[in-house]
């Protein structure tokens, strides 16, 4: 019996999106279709965005974030509208594109910041076909999403250098 599995990655540590992208790459390697929806992200120069043309048609990624957003302190109504558009696109993609794996990147944070309603997200998750797997990522996952998920991983920073240097191909 095949059933939907909802994986949730949360926590203060780095690597939540990277874990979901690793699962996406593995899934593509088995000939599966993957759709990634990124909430609150807009930057086109990330590796996961730049690889899209090479991995099509099995891989597609869509960003729903306000260009230029720098921090959670500068959220506004436009951010809410973009997050809602992202959720609507995810609903449409599930029905029309029928991916094997759906990644809802930063959805936990979008719910935490009140850009999306947690009950609406849970309702959507309940409507996903049984054969599809879903990854939810982002800090501050609300308890309701943690309870809904089948598998929850909390990423914790144990040690970091005094000054973190971001490297192309590693952090973005």
Which helices and strands, and how do they pair?
Blueprint: E1 6-10, H1 16-29, E2 34-39, H2 47-50, H3 52-55, E3 59-64, H4 77-96, E4 101-105, H5 107-112, H6 118-126, E5 133-137, H7 143-148, E6 151-154
Parallel strand pairs: 1-5, 1-6, 2-3, 2-4, 4-5
Pfam families: CobA_CobO_BtuR
Protein name: Cobinamide adenolsyltransferase
GO molecular function, one term: ATP binding
Query: What is the CATH H-level superfamily?
Result: P-loop containing nucleotide triphosphate hydrolases
Q: Strand-and-helix sequence, N→C?
A: EHEHHEHEHHEHE
Query: In CATH, what is the class?
Result: Alpha Beta
Mean pLDDT: 94
Estimated share of beta-strand residues: 15-25%
Q: Provide the low-confidence segments as ranges.
A: none
Strand line-up across the major sheet: 3-2-4-5-1-6
Task: Give the helix proportion (percent range).
Answer: 25-40%
Cα-to-Cα separation, first versus last residue: 37 Å
From the spread of the alpha carbons, the general shape counts as globular
Word description of this protein:
- There is one protein chain.
- This protein has helices at 16-29, 47-50, 52-55, 77-96, 107-112, 118-126, 143-148, and strands at residues 6-10, 34-39, 59-64, 101-105, 133-137, 151-154.
- The protein has one domain (6-154): 3-Layer(aba) Sandwich (Rossmann fold), CATH 3.40.50.300.
- Helices cover 37% and strands 18% of the residues.
- Strands 3-2-4-5-1-6 form a 6-stranded parallel β-sheet, with helices on both faces.
- It is globular and about 45 Å long.
- The protein is built from 7 helices and 6 strands.
- The protein has 172 residues and is an alpha/beta fold.
């Amino acid at each position: 019996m095949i059933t939907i599995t909802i994986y949730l990655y949360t926590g203060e540590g780095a690597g939540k999106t990277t874990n979901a992208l690793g699962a996406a790459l593995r899934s593509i390697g088995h000939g599966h279709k993957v759709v990634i929806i990124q909430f609150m992200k807009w930057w086109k120069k990330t590796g996961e965005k730049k690889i899209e043309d090479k991995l099509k048609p099995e891989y597609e990624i869509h960003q729903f974030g306000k260009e230029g957003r720098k921090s959670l302190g500068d959220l506004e109504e436009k951010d809410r509208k973009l997050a809602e558009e992202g959720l609507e696109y995810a609903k449409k993609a599930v029905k029309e594109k029928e991916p094997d794996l759906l990644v809802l990147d930063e959805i936990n944070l979008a719910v935490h910041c009140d850009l999306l309603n947690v009950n609406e997200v849970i309702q959507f998750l309940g409507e996903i076909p049984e054969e599809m797997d879903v990854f939810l990522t982002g800090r501050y996952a609300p308890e309701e999403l943690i309870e809904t998920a089948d598998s929850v991983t909390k990423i914790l920073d144990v040690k970091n250098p005094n000054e973190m240097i971001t490297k192309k191909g590693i952090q973005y």
